[in-house]
Amino acid sequence: MKQYQFIFFICLSLHLIESIHLVSTFSLRTPRKLIKLHSFARLASTDTKDIDTFFYKQTLDHFNYKPESYNTFDQRYLINFKYWGGANYSAPIFVYLGAEDAIDPSPYSVGFMIDNAPTFKALLVYIEHRYYGKSIPFGSREEAYKNASTLGYLNSAQALADYADVIIHIKKTLQAQNSPIVVIGGSYGGMLASWFRLKYPHLTIGALASSAPILSTDDIVHPNAYMDVVSRDFKEVSDTCYETILNSWSEIDRVTSETNGLSILSKKFNTCSPLNNSSELSHYLENMYVFAAQYNHPSSSPVTTICNGIDKASFGNDVLDKIYSGIVAFIGNDTCQINDPTSISETPISETDIETETRMGWGWQICSELVVRHGIGNDTMFRPSPFDLEKYISNCKEEYDVSPRSHWISTYYGGHNLKTILQRFGSNIIFSNGLQDPLSSGGILHDLSKSIVAIYTKKGSHCLDIQSSSPSDPVWLIKQRKQEVKIIKRWIAQYYTDLDALH
Amino acid sequence: MKQYQFIFFICLSLHLIESIHLVSTFSLRTPRKLIKLHSFARLASTDTKDIDTFFYKQTLDHFNYKPESYNTFDQRYLINFKYWGGANYSAPIFVYLGAEDAIDPSPYSVGFMIDNAPTFKALLVYIEHRYYGKSIPFGSREEAYKNASTLGYLNSAQALADYADVIIHIKKTLQAQNSPIVVIGGSYGGMLASWFRLKYPHLTIGALASSAPILSTDDIVHPNAYMDVVSRDFKEVSDTCYETILNSWSEIDRVTSETNGLSILSKKFNTCSPLNNSSELSHYLENMYVFAAQYNHPSSSPVTTICNGIDKASFGNDVLDKIYSGIVAFIGNDTCQINDPTSISETPISETDIETETRMGWGWQICSELVVRHGIGNDTMFRPSPFDLEKYISNCKEEYDVSPRSHWISTYYGGHNLKTILQRFGSNIIFSNGLQDPLSSGGILHDLSKSIVAIYTKKGSHCLDIQSSSPSDPVWLIKQRKQEVKIIKRWIAQYYTDLDALH
């Protein structure tokens, strides 16, 4: 895949955090140990014994009635009953809609749910997305990810239908017909949450869609918007840092063209193995900047960390020394970086290699329907690189033997002129964003109606609002979460009033 | 199929009218010449040269990305450009969503569109439903209807996605991005129209759903409701007619049990070939009563015609003579009836046998997702016959090798507690019904919100409002259509206001 197509739409994932692996990458071939994530997010302190695991016998294809469509797979979902007020009181149910990742870390990483469960007396449900974690069709990962014929069932419409089935099943099993459902999701999961409210209003009273870039497909926003934000984040922290990064690309080219240039670069950047070409270095750096911007958590501020490293370099005035100083400030220098031979690239999929699954699954999704256009414009700290749809398509054909349906998302879910349409249709969606998150460039940043609202923070990063609260949270983040809770309370109060009127 | 499962959800179809064949049946094995339809509806006097035919290369499976999902078929749609104000004026587009039938008769049978086209300066579009008419996947009818593997793609969700694609294509081709779309449908097509507004609000500003029994699946309305209305229609016309019909079933049994009973019945009812059992007669009669009730057009009043025949029988007091007199009054006695050996039952599907296609296609649809529950209660003019889901399912397995997903429609589209849900979600749907139409028992008869409204007439029959106006139309029908036009005008005016605000 073209490098900057491979931005993950993921909030934060615990197994990735634990194993200090890569979360946000540009490429299937990005090395393992790019980023230490442990400092990024505070995890909810939930007792694992509070989390019950269930499996639902899910239909393989909801929109077809061929015999093989009736095949089933076990879809995993987790429930935390601890805070629930119970069916007799029609106590609410918060349902987290899983995204392109295993669901087990979600009870800990989506702290917003557990933080607010006692107040709402809410049941907490976390449903795993098909083809991820343990919710694998065709009996095994190997089969499910084998080719386009088995991957064909991995798409958002099928996932939403799965969620509908599981929600109906849970309400029936718990005899909780009158309990209001609020769906919550982040990033791609946030897109799913907002779409679920639009497509299945009979199954949820409202959606909290955190950092959901629902405008990032088709031609709705400019392909350069994402990288513009990354670049802006760095510029806001430091003009000199921005300039150094901007100048570093031609300097990499200059050194590369010297005799033994790649050896010089390999040594300078302490690579794990010698660089084969300068792109390996450039991609690594681009990935790091993008990752830092998307997950620019206020308590760790990776963009500031990198820029401090660059600006305060004690290595002299060499541009590349400054860049390396930025890497060390962010990642540390206790281990080699770049070109790690233990990289997960190209390794076969096994039962334990969940990162590869996430990469492969997401790679398939962005090649089939979620055609996310990302390019680099002329006025950033990166080298310009316009989005090339033809190349994107040909890469997808090569990698997955699939032709992207690049207009399907806006055909099925809409996207153009949303304000005109949704001001008179639908209700009860919160689109939350942090403007430092480059994915906010594809987000909803203005209210679409009285009850389809945008709540954003200028300093927020990706999915920040649905993470656990912390004593060190800035005031603006506390305020954002309070607003969200207030709106959800209003939805639920309105629902109870309607329910009373019915009976 | 169990007899009373096979109620068609169809408005009026010209080829059926022309060939004086059966439109509404209970059974795949119902004889051909049941009803003369020519007296039922006034057709729009449209010049055939005003109707242009187009084909769109349609995707076989919108919700799957397997290689075979990318197969295409030619989907037919018709356009009448005569009245259109043009793209420059953002003049509206009325789109008729085809149902379980070929689309060619629709420009003539759906007169409401052409009657109102000059006032609205509307473009008229008629899109054919997949698997009907000329919109056949897999290259031929024989292949498309071969088995569950090829029929699997015939369902409502795929059909709605087809309509979305065609609408986008038409707007693009005509550079009519700003032209508002109003979708119109009747019966099953009315269900599709309302669902299209709910699922694709970005592609239509509103829907006129005529005689759409969207509550008739799952357990939302009582299975007996349909036949209750049929029975009520006859009772309202004549108590004695109702009583005669009620008494006829046991009389048929009594005569059947006599020596040569079936010969006596065959002679009495002038059957085309000797009856093999009394059910052939009973089913024929049930079909006739149901048909008369569903298509009880005010100008022809078949229920009154039948009852007049029964009540004024000159054959003496024999119950069955009276019933035969009812048949003659309605159908005539110039030809034999019942057990016609030229019946279309059991005939293979050929290119010309469009009725069989409609039966097969609809048979598949009600066996896969549109599980319509119909039974007969204790207090009707029929013999009680409760709905039997198990038998329904086993019949579907036998006939089509498919297991009905009997909850899917309410999972995907909703159906329970619609008022509670749609009073705060969605807008701009007219549900029109006539209460004499037994399918109105599954229709929306109360406003769900300010703009999701029910407009019904006490004396109306199936899809009456979307047929052509006629000088003989009763006042209540004229009023119903005026209300609908007024509401559609309001939608369009509102849309233009929103459009102005946008630019």
From TrEMBL, chains A, B:
One of its GO terms (molecular function) is dipeptidyl-peptidase activity. The keyword Hydrolase applies. Residues 1-19 form the signal peptide. One of its GO terms (biological process) is proteolysis. Keywords: Glycoprotein, Hydrolase, Protease, Signal. InterPro entries: AB_hydrolase_fold, Peptidase_S28, Ser_carbopepase_S28_SKS. It comes from the Eukaryota. SUPFAM superfamilies: alpha/beta-Hydrolases. Pfam families: Peptidase_S28 (PF05577). Belongs to the peptidase S28 family. This is Lysosomal Pro-X carboxypeptidase.
